[in-house]
Design a protein that fits this description.
By secondary structure, the chain is of the alpha+beta class. Helices cover 23% and strands 33% of the residues.
Length: 681
Amino acid sequence: MIVDRCFKAFSTSFRMTLRLAFGMTIATLASVATAQMPVAWRYDLHPGDRLTYSYTFHREVRSDEAQTAVEAHFHTQVLIAGEQGGIFSAGFQRNRDSANLLVYRIKGKDKLAGERPNFEKRMKARPAQFSEAMEFTTSGEPRYSWEIVRESSSHLLPALHEIEVLPRSAVKTDRWHAMNLLGMEFEFVGSELVHGKNCDHVRGTTSDGSVTLSYWSLQESRIIEKIELDGTYAVPGGTSHEQAHMELESISKNETLSNWLAKSETRLGALEAVLLSPSLPLTQDDLAAALKSGNTATQRLALAVAYHRGAPLSASALSDIGDSETRIFAEKMFKASPSNPHGSCPLQSPSKPTQTKVGTLFRVALAEKPGPGVPYFLRIPVTYRADRPTPLLVYLSGGAGMALDGVNTANDAIANSNYLVMYPQAGEYWWKPEVAQRLNTVLLDTFHEFNVDRDRVYIAGFSNGGTGSLYMAQLWPQRFAAVVSLMGAGQCNEDVQKMLPNLTNLPLLFVHGEKDERIPASCSKDTSDALSGMHPRVAPQLRLLPDKEHELTLQSDDGLTLTFLKDKIREPFPKRISLRLPDLGFPRQYWIEVLGKKSDVADVNAEIKPDNRLEIHSHAVTRLRLHLRPEMFPQAGSVRIVWNGKQVYQGPLGNFCSSAAEANVGDPDLDLADRKEFALP
């Protein structure tokens, strides 16, 4: 199979990501189990404290064909913005001082001089400042998920923080799991002198010994004096070895939020803290100064703070926003939510929880059946409002389908967008029924917890994920407004090929590099041609990129994916449906649901005619349920339903709004309907 070549180093990478995915869950249980132990160590921190760290990150990647090494230097500002009831509010801002490409060898040949300008161009395009916020206890336990997107793309950095969880006792025989995304087991090593200061050394290690995290905590204040991270993990065709070294440079006291908001090296971190913790004081002058900064990220955070605090913004304040996208952002942020989002049905929008923290966060969806939850990452934009629908992009990664690879290949592209972005995890091929069940679980969790615009749900992926995006869209075409396959296998994959008719109502974009040797561009071209021959509702689009190999992701596709998705709105009631179901794991597509079938693959072709006749032709189907709405038909009044040449119904449609009284109306367009069931005549 063509896509097998995408799965080098699968097993090691899978084990790493299982630790990543379940580390926080395990850690939480461990934390609860030891909650009755006496707490010996606490941070001696106070509002107005500012900790400054110098920080170096080094990565070396070796594969069969290439060797690269990169080193970046940062200064980190930790801002203790407030404290209430033993809970600290802190902002973090990591400012990149420099980034250098040290080694670049391809097939043994030194290509550093030629690649360095490309590297510098990429670094210039990326933000030089990264910020986040956290509320944590005096022992360092975070109240929320830490931000997954970090200042450098890495599988390890999401586990590294300037505030680490302190041990509950200083006994060398103790072992414990802290709230660390790599699921590390920690131990107290002993007391040591660092920079002439008395410190206690704590070390954490993954179960296979591939990653080690050590920190040295000052005995006097428990502030961390030094942190070291060293680890290796698998990447396609090779390994990545990463090291991070962080040292405390200074501690400043009695500073104010206004001081931090006035300086570029602390402004973003301060705004993040204010956004996370509404109890922190903020003046209108502080907000106005942030809006005048001219920095897009600063202005967006300031606008989000203003909205969530109900702070009025004057016309003059908004006039300081020069960027057109940010002005659009401001208009959307303060725009009233629609009064009747469900048209003719008097249905109240279900209330959604207010999200305290924004950013890309770790979540666990509870499965319908008893068993472990399903981990995934979700990006919550600063524009998110619980009272207004927000579009959702589901992004499937390539390789072994790791969620973190999705984050690291998408964030630069979506950083200033208004999308909720879901990063599910496969850990294998995306086109497996059990993987589809897990994705269904996290989709339902996101729909339940967030106000998702169900007419603007999109799915995209690259390589393995590009194939997977087509497969998932074949299972649930009614859920999506559009689909993008970046260098996916398309109908070269037999699981996709046998359900190809299910895609004929969806806008599709295929993007492929003409020089791709791993999955040939002909796979995308042949799939596009095959769909075009099925007379789809919307003709698929194909973009073959010259000089591109197997290297396309959301942030390296020349903006094609996001441009394509921008104006796509779901069509929930297509006039013609073609579906093919090998099994009844997911039996519904749009307004047709197959309730019973023979052993063969079930085929259904249905079309609504101009005379209000719904004509159905099927193979191997024994029972059907139709979900009908008046707007599906060209005329008001009676409808006729004919199945395999025999009339099974003639008469009016019932009141579809009556189903609004049911407990779960997650998608009004699909859930509110006059349901009619028929057995094969």
